[in-house]
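Attaching the record inline, Q. Sequence:
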Amino acid sequence: MPTSTSLRAPLLIALPLLMAASDKGAGFPPGDYAEGSLALLVSKRCEKSPTLDTRSIEWPGLVYGPGRPPAWGHKSAGACRGLDTWVLSEALAAGAYWVSNDHAAIEADPNTTLFDDPKAGAAFKKVFGWELPERGDDVPPHNVFLKFDPKKVSALFDKVYVKPTDKVGSATGQDVYDVFFKDAVARFAREVAFIKDNLPKAQLGKQLKAYQAAAKQQGGKFRGVPFLKEAAAGALPKDDEQSARAGRTLGVMLRRTADNTWPIINKLLKKVVTDYDPPLAEEIGKKL
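Structure, as predicted:
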């Protein structure tokens, strides 16, 4: 789950959205939850890039045009970029609203239904029994790290995870993963494996204490990104191409270690990689 100091952390919210919903005690049909969540992501962060994307999926969502408000339609979706905490929180809520309400009514007026934050947030609480996880924007301040409940992280994942061959809208879970998320999740998984391979648990613990001490000492002036970049540069091999990007992922691991969610998140990451990207699992599985 995310915090305010990293844009990579929101991928951990995205993991359960990579797949369709299951019917294991959740009370909604397979595929519906993810279809609604992905409609919001496609509307805001996953439009196909003509220069970067070689694969795409036609997906329902908001279609934009000159001189008129966004309306429901279908658009060509590619790899999701800029998956910040704001939009991923909205996507979690949108999935809950989608499975709780009439789809035709949503499509007729999406801006006052699926894309209405209070209504979608209330739907999330109704479906799961607890409030939507806090968003990692500028509240709380940069020196305050959000905390999440390991049991809720695990429960959310369990309620929506299915196999790659199951249907998500008009596609399969594997199709959705390959187009929307594969590159980003693979990069994150490689960086986690790289950090774990080069930083023993004792060293990771020292990094966490230094991180927390710096945040406390600097107060509202603390900025996680430059601190983590410097920390990673000092602790990881400098000749590896992953070192330059590993600071953000190191921050995810440290904050989630602090609130005891990292063991769960690491376990779920392994499952996603094993199920959806077997070659990558074979390559880095023992380090991950």
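Strands lie at 57-65, 68-77, 167-168, 171-172. The chain has two domains: 11-185, 189-284.

More tomorrow.
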